[in-house]
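Exercise: predict the structure of this protein bound to zinc ion.
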Amino acid sequence: MRPAIFFDCDGVLNQEPGGHGVLVPDDIRLIPGAGAAVRAAREAGYLAIIVTNRAQVAKGFVSLAGLETIFGRLRQLLAEDGGIVDAIYFCPHHPERTSGGAPDFQIACECRKPGTLLLRRAIADFDIDVARSVLIGDSLRDIGAGRAMGLASYGVRTGFACRDVERYPDRAPPVPERMFADVGAAVAFCVTHPAKHGQAGLPD
Ligand SMILES: [Mg+2]
Ligand SMILES: [Zn+2]
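Solution:
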């Protein structure tokens, strides 16, 4: 079994564009050091797996084919800095019915983070060692999904910077075990402080 680092996408590897999110490949702008971070993760023996909510599909802003071109650009830009992504798992759903949307994808699902189905699929497909694996996200939705799976779950101060507490008006938001300036710093910590038994790496 291998450990994995699960990366959120927007706000972690590429800049969170705001608005409706990434709609075309040109909207992908890497966060500095993201490609090197993915490379460092793999060189340390981790699988590099992206888990991402893509509600733009349900909302009718992006087709599945369009999404593949967006992911292609992301993979290409990361690879320019040596960052090879092992797999991308995405949720195309959104629970709201909106006009102009794609009805097939306008459903309540288990894969939209903080749902855990994307993580569970990846863990089964790659026979991943959960106890040694880590999730890195910029949204509390990412952190919620990671913690629900028992993953060490780290936040970054790029993107939403895990400040999206308004998503939790009536219950305590999930708390990242650690916060880092960016994905590069988070991966640097992971490779020097491996997670064990789902607990965050020990402090220095
Ligand atoms: Mg994000
Ligand atoms: Zn879904």
